[in-house]
Amino acid sequence: MIVTRFPPSPTGHLHLGGARTALFNWLYARHTRGKFILRIEDTDTARSSQESVDAILESLNWLGIDWDEGPYFQSQRFNIYQDHIQKLVESGHAYYCDCPPERLEEIRKAAMASGGKPKYDGKCRERGLKPSEETVVRFKAPLIGTTILNDVVKGSIVFENSELDDFIIARKDGTPTYNFVVVVDDITMGINVIIRGDDHVMNTPKQILIYKALCAALPVFGHVPMVLGSDRSRLSKRHGAMSVLAYRDMGYLPEALINYLVRLGWSYGDQEIFTRDDLIEKFSMERLGKSPGVFNPEKLLSVNAEHIK
Asked: Is the domain of 210 the same as that of 234?
């Protein structure tokens, strides 16, 4: 069974780019009679709020995006993350590091001065340190070879392991980092298809290494180009883009917004107007676009007018 997910961070309202990501994953799950899971990524407690959670759920409900499981909250899953960190340490895929910030800054400055890429030098890699209040946990990345991302949209991307860092997977206070928790969640929730923005591509080799270290099967990845504004920069409010709920409050139909957003990164011949059932029937990952969609408020208006008829 196909299992997809949408994992928003509750640090604000749901905007068009996030809504499009949710739609792609929801449509693929519905097209394949699979499962769509909602997960709230609220580990950033300082910026997360219940108000944002409520706004995201309200936005999804208005769009008609229903979920089969969840919403799960990362803030309630710390025991699961700790168990998996322990597994990696015990299997030799992670280690404790007590290098102070001053030393890490020296390494960074030296790398920048020589024109290199700042990365940890592995001092604590084989020291066998025990956990303490001063230690972080680092993933032990392979020093040779390559990590390959086979992407439905981008094709095959090869990353040199020598370019990857021994990245931190748990901070001094024990809180796990993004690249680690997202993999643990996807493994434990059975996610086997991930459609997301291509701003995540550079995170993916790190995540693939964690999957392999945890002896888990890799999901199918599809990294879609971002939605851009008319000036070809990343879509924002200055391009006239607003939150999903703002479009609702202005009187747009949810079917129109769905139709428009999906067409910003997916096509089916020359067809422009789709009902929700049309999209479920015709959606496939192979038809996801390889070039960025450009947001056009006038086009959205005309699609809305078609759906009002």
From this structure: no
Confidence band of 51 (pLDDT split at 50, 70, 90): very high
Structural domain including 138 reads 78-224
Q: Answer yes or no: do 84 and 211 share one domain.
A: yes
214/239 same-domain check: no
Give buried/exposed letters for 201-235 (b at 16+ CB in 10 A, else e). beebbbbbbbbebbeeeebbbbbbbbbbbeeeeeb
Q: What is residue 165's three-state secondary structure?
A: coil
Q: What is the pTM of this model?
A: 0.94
Tell me the pLDDT tens digit for each residue of 252-268: 999 999 999 999 999 99
Catalytic site residue from 109, 237, 282, 299: 237
Active site (annotated) includes residue 87: no
Residues 114 and 215 in one domain: yes
Identify which of 293, 169, 177, 182 has the alpha carbon closest to the alpha carbon of residue 241: 293
Give the residue carrying structure tokens 């860092």.
Answer: 165
* Alpha carbon separation from 39 to 4, 141, 189 (Å, rounded): 11, 27, 10
pLDDT of residue 283 exceeding 80: yes
